[in-house]
Amino acid sequence: MKKKALVLGSTGQDGSYMIEFLLSKNYQVHGLIRKSATGNTRNINHLIDNKNVFNKNFFLHKGDLLDLGSIINLINEINPSEIYNFADQDHVTWSFNIPSYSFKVTALAVIEILEALKSKKIKYFQPISSNIFGLNDEKKQNENSRLNPNSVYALGKTTAYQACQMYNRIFKMHNCGAIFYNHESPRRAKEYVTQKIVHNVCQIYKKNKKDILLGDLSAKIDWGYAKDYVEASWKIMQLKKPDFFIIASGTNYTVEYFVKKCFSYVGLDYKKYVKIDPKLIRKAQTSSLKGNTLKAEKFFKFNKKKTSLDQLIKIMMDSELNKVNGT
Q1: Using one digit for the tens of pLDDT, what is the confidence trace for 136-168?
Q2: CATH classification of 4-183+223-247, choosing from 3.40.50.720, 3.90.1150.10, 3.40.640.10, 3.40.50.300?
Q3: pTM
Q4: Residue 273: which of 183, 227, 182, 204 has the closest Cα?
């Protein structure tokens, strides 16, 4: 019989890639979709429109992380062997604007899911953000680095991380996960800096815009490719013992480097188009975080060099150029 998996956050970047990956592994995949996301299914429309896949190997269900009843009913109905929770409020700035909602979705909803799974033998995957390290003076962070969140979002992720570990200890559950550093793709929403840059560069290239407003160009970020990180998620889930692993590229680059590379990809000089807006600089920044992936490399041969930043930029730029060119 096919393995069954439930993916929460099915319309987002990671959730949509996870669904594709699980289908390639011959799973029966069930996705959760919120009412507010029903008009935003662009990341999975190719699956919904595929008559050989939709409602045969891939199914969508209505529900919400803040409605525990809908989650419990869905788990009981499907009885999956694996649950991947990619649903949360994952924007740092937004977490300050809607702190209570952000914490409920990112942390309290996770605790309620863990409560619902206590009596079931279901493997659970929880993604965590490198933001849990926040203000950290280590050159590279590992799984034992001090937690020091510096945003409401990071606080929520820290709580979810520790909750999974606590439930494992007390109730002998299989709650595992990854501490993800920044990971991007053409499916990244435009409010994130990489996609904002890619989109605006292509608009400038097509002469639809004159410039781009950015914040701190000197900020250093550890960037990777979302598809690689989703594959790592599945590998973590397949391990016999539940554990958490840092998933990162192990290198960091400035925002300025990313901008320069995107402009040069279309033959333009970034200095002619970039304007700095102090309002876009985060009030609560983190340190220049960089991940140590030795544990993941040892346990399941994680390849941090599978997709370089330059390759990722090409993937994102090609995708956006195809959109603006109508191809």
Answers
A1: 889 999 999 999 998 889 999 999 999 999 999
A2: 3.40.50.720
A3: 0.94
A4: 204
